[in-house]
Structure formats: structure tokens, C-alpha cells
Amino acid sequence: MTRTTETITPELQAYIVDHTDPVDPVLAELAEETARLYPDHKGMQIGAEQGAFTTLLTRIQGARDVVEIGTFTGYSSICFARGLPSDGRLLALDISEEWTSVARRYWERAGVADRIDLRIGPALESLQGLPEQEQFDIAFLDADKTGYIDYWEELVPRMRAGGLLLADNTLSHGRVVDPDNTEPHVQGIRDFNDRLVADDRVTQVLLPLGDGLTLARKN
Ligand SMILES: C[S@@+](CC[C@H](N)C(=O)[O-])C[C@H]1O[C@@H](n2cnc3c(N)ncnc32)[C@H](O)[C@@H]1O
């Protein structure tokens, strides 16, 4: 057996955050306001180290066109948009006017509003309604987990060669390996993970970052 991933204790988690690019005041305030307004939903935001990773990845990729499925109050969209060049574009898809109205305020504050095009509605319909020629360098899946496979099938053909697809929550808080858990969103993630590992259109790795972040590159 090759080396395994370390078990992340709370102390190691704090150490990881302390040794990753710090969260700037705009994102810190967004996280605070989200926790205050929506205490039951604050866990939906990606984590600080995932945010730093996505900004870095967007820059490494030289991405110009990014699509995000699941925007919520805007944390991950700001991280992607910050990695884009000034003429780059993030297409942000969500069903909630309320949650994304918070995102809009923070996009202005982060100075990235001009790079973000928000579409409200079921994300699958928004994707299916895009012009045929529209292509992406990065796609990020972070909405309803039972929809991941449909998003994936819609997105893979729209990725440029070498494009990156990222999917959050692919460990489902460890529940993917609990056979007694048959909740639809957990089973949705299991089905998604099984589908990906058999998909020879991509090369992929399931990273134990946050709640599991799958990174796949279109071959
Ligand atoms: C986990 S949150 C996204 C968190 C966000 N990426 C962040 O880091 O702050 C999931 C989002 O998906 C949205 N959502 C759920 N079902 C959807 C659907 N069918 N179409 C579009 N958006 C959907 C929800 O409104 C919610 O804002």
C-alpha cells in the first residue's frame, strides 16, 4: 500500500489554514455576514483553503471562462473571479434571488462584479439554454448533489481540451462510505464518484480538501 492521506485533526486543520494565503477582509466579512443571516446554511460556503486553491488553480490554468453551479452568497465565485484576467468571465448559476443578492453586494466590494454574469433558475436549464459554441476552461459543481451527474454530462462536452472540472462535497462528510446511509444526496455523490472514475474522457483525482474536492481534467 502506498502512503495514505493524513487524518486531519482540528490542530492540523488550523495549521493548514495558517499556512495558506490568508483570507482577505472582504471574504472574512462575507463569511461573517452569511453566518449571521443564515446560521443554518453557513456550512454551504467552501472553506478558506478551498478558496485559496481555486484562485490559484484559475491562475495556473490561465482560465478566461469559468462556470459555477451553485453560487449561494458568493464566496467561491469571488475566489474564481479573482483568478481571472480582467476580461475573463464567470457564469454563476443559482436558483436563489435572496442568497445571490448578498453575492452581488460582495462582488462589488471585491471589485469583480464586471466579470460575473449571474443567471437565476434551475442550473440544468440554464446550461441547456447556452449557445452551442459556448465553452469553458473551468467548471465548478456545488449545487444540489442529486443533479451532479446531469451537470457533468452537460459540462464535459462544453469544456475546452485540458479544461478543469471541480466538484465539491465528494466525500459527503464521510457518509459516502457509510453503507447504512441511503439519503438521496449521499447516494447522488456516490453515483457521481463512480461515474467519474469510469469516465475515460477525463483524468481525475478526489482530493481530501474540505469535504472532498474532485479535480478532473478533460483529456
Ligand atoms: C453549497 S451552496 C453553494 C455554495 C457556494 N459555492 C459558496 O462557496 O458559497 C449550493 C447552492 O446551490 C443552489 N442550488 C440548489 N439547487 C439548485 C439548482 N437546481 N439550480 C441552481 N442552483 C441550485 C442553492 O440555491 C445554493 O445557493
From TrEMBL:
One Gene Ontology MF term: methyltransferase activity
SUPFAM superfamilies found in the cross-reference section: S-adenosyl-L-methionine-dependent methyltransferases (SSF53335)
Keywords: Methyltransferase, S-adenosyl-L-methionine, Transferase
GO biological process: methylation
PROSITE patterns: SAM_OMT_I
Signal peptide start-end: none
Pfam families: Methyltransf_3
InterPro entries, sorted: Cation-dep_OMT, SAM-dependent_MTases_sf, SAM_O-MeTrfase
UniProt protein name: Class I SAM-dependent methyltransferase
Organism of this sequence: Nocardiopsis coralli
Organism placement in taxonomy: Bacteria, Bacillati, Actinomycetota, Actinomycetes, Streptosporangiales
